[in-house]
Every structure is written in C-alpha cells, then in structure tokens.
Write a structure and sequence with these properties.
Elements lengths: L3 E5 H11 L4 E4 L6 H10 L6 E4 L3 H13 L4 E5 L1 H16 L4 E7 L15 H5 L10 E3 L4 H18 L2 E7 H5 L1 E5 L34 H22 L2 E4 L6 E4 L3 H15 L4 E6 L1 E3 L3 H9 L5 E6 L5 H9 L5 E5 L8 H13 L2
Parallel strand pairs: 2-3, 2-4, 4-5, 5-7, 6-7, 10-11, 10-13, 13-14
Antiparallel strand pairs: 1-8, 6-12, 9-11
C-alpha cells in the first residue's frame, strides 16, 4: 500500500533531499520558496544534518561550494532574485566541477517583481546561470510528486557527471498541495568521490579543487573536457513527455504548471475535432531538440504553440530545435499572471487555421 502524504511542493523537495542523503542545506528565506528552508530547519537537527540560514544568498551558495568540495551532498534553494545573487557561486561550482543541487521556485520579475508564479528565469537557468562556458542540468517538474522524484534524480545526475543540477519550478507548484507517494522515490546512487577534499591521512597526494587557471591552454583543455561530459548528458539524460502527439496537427510545447493547463486546452480542442498534442520538456537543459525536430518535420504538423509564464523565452529553443520548419506561436502571460485553458484554446485554433 502506497505511503501517501499530503504535502506542499516545497515540502516534497525538502523531504526528498533528505531521503536522497542530503545532510547539508544552506539557504536564505524568500517567497515563494521559504517552506523549503523552514522544513529543513525542523528536520535537519533531528537527523544529525546541518541547516544554516546564511547571512545572504551569496554566503549560502559559497557554503554549498565548500560542502560539495568535501564530497557530501549539499543543497540550496531560493526564488528568482535570490538565484541571481547566487549566480557567481554557481559559476564557481561549475568551474570546479562540483556536484550540488540548486532549487529555484520562480517568482515574477525583473527586479523584486512580485511573489506570484513565473517562468521568466528560463534564460538564466538554461543559458548558464553565471559567467563563463558551462551548463546546469535543469529539471522541470509539473506536479508535487515530480518535485519529490526529481529532487533525488537531481542529486544522482550531479554526482554521476560532476555537475550542478537545478530544479526549476514556479510559485504555483511550490505552494500547491498534492498527495505524494513517499515510497516512490528512486534509490539514490552511491558514487565514489576520490577527488573530494577529505584529508590525505598520509595516504595520498593532496586533492586540489579550484576554478582558476592562469595558463589559457589549461583552461581551454578543461572546458573542452567539461563539454565532452555535457555531450554525454545530452545523450543519456534528455527527458520529455509526449501526450497525444501521434496524430497531432498542432504541437503544444509547455513545461511545469502551464503544461497541466495545456492538457485541459488540448481536451477542449479535440472535442471540437482539432488534433492537438503536447510535448512537455522535463529537462530544460538538455533540451529535447530531437523530438521537436522530428515532429516539426512531419507533413501533418501545421504549427507549434509555446505556452509560457514569461514574455517568451523557451520559444527561442523551440524555434532553434525545429529550424523554423513550421510556424511557432506564443501563448504567454507574465508578471505573475497565468493563462486560462480558453486562452490556450484560442492560440491552438489560430495555429490550426494558419492565422
């Protein structure tokens, strides 16, 4: 019998991190993700873990750097303005090839914006998240169960490839409550970390973790090696959901909470005889380019519709993936507003008619 518990999305992330072996959390409160820190503050002392509310977001991400360098599983979380402050530290994590997990429960922006849900951090997450040549693995859940499941996955991918993973969600999913099967989490993989700073004990040469390379040839070689690992991630870890795409003439592309709304819209237009389907990217990086290119190349496909809680950011990756083989329309709300199924229906019908 499933061990189901009613939890907020933020709480599910925190519990999953603990069950995945995370015993070091460093954070700073900001709406709409504060429940993650509050949950960790209650639970960590009871399991001999470390909860530390840092003096700032900048301090928190550098604490994650230190813990990750010691080879332990470490996590931080924040919302959009806080992630911006962490961006330098995220780049340092990438430059030092350190596995860690960063959670972003997005809110409206730019600036302080508002506390309502948003997806306007897509560029920030998928195009680096800081300075320099690097990628984050970006996972985008669309429900509380997935927030629980993907937290464990984020840690495993981080350890396997020595990268930083980001769980990118929004204020809707962070605050909503759903039943979570606590026994459904995948078994977390144990990865040896011979590179970690654990002390030599007189048995080996000292390990060095650093992102500074004064010799440009060395830095180039390191970046090339890192991107070879990124190529493996693209090959092995790209994830997406297909929904009613076999006969679809209009392909809706949406992730996170908007993907749930899009399914309602698809049901409505199919009742009217319009064949629409959904591609839901689960990894925003690596982006599911191949399936989008394949669907766009089909003769039956008339157009694609991107549904986003932003002025339009993922749409650029959809256009790149499809090489503009078919028109790509945007259904967008911003500033914390959320599209209704009817608004998405209108855009799907516009795409189907070629308007």
């Amino acid at each position: 019998m499933a061990n189901k518990v009613l939890m907020k999305g933020n709480e599910a992330i925190a519990e999953a991190a603990i069950r995945a072996g995370c015993r070091h959390y460093f954070g700073y409160p900001i709406t709409p993700q504060t429940e993650i820190a509050a949950y960790m503050a209650k639970r960590m002392p009871k399991i001999d873990g470390t909860f530390l509310q840092a003096e700032s977001e900048i301090a928190a991400i550098n604490m994650v750097y230190g813990a990750a360098a010691a080879g332990v599983r470490a996590m931080t979380s924040s919302s959009s303005p806080g992630i911006a402050l962490k961006s330098e530290g995220i780049s340092y994590l990438a430059g030092s090839d350190l596995p860690a997990v960063v959670v972003n429960i997005q809110r409206g922006g730019p600036g302080l914006g508002g506390i309502q849900p948003s997806q306007a951090d897509y560029f920030q997450a998928t195009k680096g998240g800081g300075h320099g040549d690097f990628h984050l693995v970006v996972l985008a859940p669309n429900g509380v169960q997935e927030m629980y499941d993907m937290t464990s996955l984020a840690f495993d991918i981080a350890d396997k490839y020595r990268v930083t993973s980001m769980l990118l969600s929004d204020g809707i999913l962070g605050q909503m409550m759903e039943a979570v099967d606590l026994d459904a989490a995948r078994t977390s993989e144990c990865v040896a970390k011979p590179w970690a700073l654990t002390g030599t004990k007189g048995e080996r040469a000292p390990n060095i973790i650093n992102s500074l390379y004064m010799n440009p040839e060395d830095l180039e070689r390191t970046n090339l090696d890192r991107f070879a690992r990124y190529a493996q991630i693209e090959q092995n870890e790209t994830r997406f959901e297909q929904y009613l795409t076999d006969d679809a003439e209009v392909i809706v592309v949406a992730y996170g909470a908007p993907a749930r709304i899009a399914k309602n819209a698809i049901a409505k237009v199919r009742a009217q005889g319009v064949k629409a389907g959904l591609i839901r990217p689960i990894t925003l990086w690596p982006f599911p380019k191949a399936i989008l290119a394949e669907l766009a190349s089909r003769k039956q496909t008339k157009a694609l519709v991107c549904v986003e809680l932003s002025m339009g950011q993922m749409i650029e990756d959809v256009e790149l993936a499809t090489r503009c083989a078919k028109p790509v329309l945007l259904c967008a709300r911003t500033g914390g507003m959320v599209p209704t199924p009817e608004e998405i229906v209108t855009k799907i019908l516009q795409a189907e008619r070629g308007a």
